[in-house]
Amino acid sequence: MSERTTVLLAGQTAVITGAAQGIGLTIAETFVAHGARVVIGDLDEVRVKAAVEHLGGAGVAAGAVCDVRSAADLAALLDLATGEEPPHVMVNNAGITRDATMRRMTEEQFDEVIDINLKGTWLGMKAAAERMREAGRGSIVNLSSLSGKVGMAGQTNYSAAKAGVVGMTKAAAKELAHTGVRVNAVQPGLIRTPMTEAMPRKAWDQKMSEIPMGRPGEPVEVATGVLFLASALSSYMTGTVQEITGGRFM
Asked: Which ranges of the sequence are coiled-coil (predicted)?
């Protein structure tokens, strides 16, 4: 970073779930670049260790295997981030898709997406808030999706979960505002990742046609949106939903 760049999270500790790869890892990279120590959780132990080294090693990063469906795992992850004081930032990023039409979707596919994307976010908020409110400060950022705003065919499970994340964010923000803890959400649209680029060309072109800016987003553009909500730049914002979509479905 240049000397003229503002370091937004200097001396702060941030916990990020689902951060051993993809957008979560990009969020961790962005936070480290802005002076934070990060603690990442993910299901894949090998990837967690590799991500910690990639981020700069023990001086700036730590990690643990974490299943966000487990309150015990999340508590352990947050304890790893707690030194003399509780973590300053919690990013509930972990999520999965199990796409299928409602006709073909199984109850298992529905339940798994709800458990990880919705209940996992609730458990992460709950665990973080318990620690942050004691310090009288903190920022929680939840990852929703444009699918939670408009609903996407083949994603009744995912759309329900991500819409639920918005409702939970607003409810939690109202509960925690008086404690000094802020809760906000981001809703990414089409972001360029290996997963999205692997979709059929027809599907990709259809989605691109819906984006006024005429291009997909990059992971770092989601990460900087999360950084804004995590930092003091958004100090008078809580209960908000930030769309990072290129104008799609505005």
From this structure: none
